[in-house]
Design goal:
CATH superfamily of the largest domain: Bira Bifunctional Protein, Domain 2
Helix content: 25-40%
CATH topology of the largest domain: BirA Bifunctional Protein, domain 2
Number of helices: 15
CATH class of the largest domain: Alpha Beta
Radius of gyration: 28 Å
Length: about 425
RNA sequence: GUGGGCGUAGCCGAGCGGUUAAGGCGCCAGGUUGUGGCCCUGGAGAUCGAGGGUUCGAAUCCCUCCGCUCACCCCA
């Protein structure tokens, strides 16, 4: 038997409600803030992701699904949403549009990882990006929008964590300081942190090991080593966030896994468990990314969430998407002549835009009515020999359990007037 | 990549050396000749993840593989 590949899953009809619910809220928020939808290809030139995400990061080092197409071009299944959008921004000359250009997407994301709760090899992300504007007010707006999105889903007990990791002017000096600080404790660190020390020093800050946390607590904070511009920017973001009443926590240990982030970074986590893998979503500024892809210097900021993680949280909090109400017509019949009438009526009703069910074969009326019930039909039409003879049909209300005989010719009018 | 847990019908799940392999949900049929939702009765559906071994006998014990799952790493 074939199975869905490891780390992937089918989203069955019974689960679709959650996803449609999230998409509905997301689209609503995007509409309100003036974002327009964009869809980009599932795969891209492999170099796009190596350049942007960072050659040393885990994502490109060991998590991409990459292949050569039949002409030998290196391709990679999209492992994140931002780079393709920057590519599209450049490719289509969007710098000629009023800035910032605001785009949102729902996209499948692929990463070859060991699956676990809330972590899959293919998952669905909702994200939005605002490109071409560096005003800290935009940072605050994006963070606010992310926050309102979660609130509109009904999720509680979330915390918005915000930090600034500086820009290419001030970050190198900060990293040196950080390494300088850590170098005196190097033999106290866990093996992972020793590797981080070399590979990605920022990550040292969010190690969960108690021993390392002690060291991290005394580490220099990025926000205290920002250049004047970055410091001013960060202060403004915080000020605007207070103006728009988004509760947030400064978290100087918040860092993100992709190399392209600059200045503002933020993450939404369930309150209490501020572990690394519990993040529902996050984002940040990437003011150099478009330039690195060959465009003019263009500041930008974005945000993305994992849909499956939202579903997980919705379930944990007992939030269910609004249940679809009973709707539709079930057409039942007894006997072959009645079946012919039923087929005709079903087609006619569908042409009139009505949801119609009926059952095949020669099931008993009882069996048909059972189906009508399980399918959630609101009304049933029943054809028997008598009805066929005198041109009527039984019209049954499945909720109230009442029924009437009506002339077949009046059925469509009867339904479309309601 | 590392470590832990688990694999019995579509789903949940009992059984833990000798049973016709429970039970529940769901599905199908019937309970008056043309009517659902509750109830009752019956039925279909399982090479007990796969392969090997131990044993008179294995779903039950051992080994190998495969798969799932959780945690770490990392990320959404």
């Amino acid at each position: 038997m074939y199975k869905a590949p490891r780390g992937t899953s089918d989203i069955l009809p019974a689960e679709q409600g959650y996803f449609r619910y999230i998409e509905g809220r997301a689209s609503e928020i995007c509409q309100r803030y003036g974002y327009e939808r964009i869809d980009t290809p599932v795969f891209e030139d492999a170099r796009l992701f190596i350049r942007t995400i960072g050659p040393g990061t885990d994502i490109v080092e060991k998590e991409t699904y990459s292949f050569e197409d039949r002409s030998g071009q290196g391709m990679t299944l999209r492992p994140e949403g931002t780079a393709p959008i920057c590519r599209a921004y450049l490719e289509h000359g969007m710098h000629n549009l009023p800035q910032p250009v605001r785009l949102y997407y729902f996209a499948a994301i692929f990463r070859y990882e060991r699956p676990q709760k809330g972590r899959y090899r293919q998952h669905q992300q909702f994200g939005f990006e605002a490109l071409g504007e560096g005003d800290p007010a935009l940072d605050a707006e994006v963070i606010e929008m992310a926050w309102r999105f979660f609130k509109s889903l009904g999720l509680r007990k979330l915390s918005m964590q915000v930090n600034s990791i500086g820009c290419r002017l001030c970050r190198p000096a900060y990293l040196e300081r950080l390494k300088g600080y850590y170098s005196q404790y190097i033999d106290r660190l866990c093996p992972e942190c020793k590797a981080r020390f070399r590979k990605n020093p920022l990550r040292l800050l969010d190690c969960k090991k108690p021993s390392c946390q002690g060291v991290a607590a005394g580490a220099p904070k990025s926000v205290e080593h920002l250049c004047p511009e970055c410091r001013e920017h960060f202060k403004s973001v915080a000020r605007y966030l207070r103006l728009v009443k988004v509760p947030f926590k400064k978290n100087h240990r918040l860092v993100r896994g992709l190399d392209y982030y600059t200045r503002t970074v933020f993450e939404v986590q369930p309150e209490g468990e501020e572990g690394a893998q519990s993040a529902l979503g996050g984002g940040g500024r990437y003011d150099n990314l478009i330039e690195e892809l060959g465009g003019k210097p263009t500041p930008a900021i974005g945000f993305a969430v994992g849909m499956e993680r939202i579903v997980l949280n919705l379930k944990e909090q007992g939030i269910t998407p609004p249940a679809p109400e009973r709707q539709g017509i079930f057409v039942a019949y007894v006997g072959d002549e009645a079946k012919a009438e039923a087929v005709k009526l079903a087609a006619e009703l569908r042409r009139a835009g009505v949801l119609v069910y009926w059952s095949f074969g020669r099931k008993s009326l009882k069996a048909q009515m059972r189906q009508a019930n399980v399918l959630g039909a609101e009304y049933a039409f029943i054809f028997g020999e008598d009805e066929v003879r005198n041109g009527t049909v039984v019209y049954r209300d499945m909720v109230e359990g009442e029924q009437w005989k009506v002339p077949v010719g009046e059925v469509v009018a009867l339904l479309t007037q309601v």
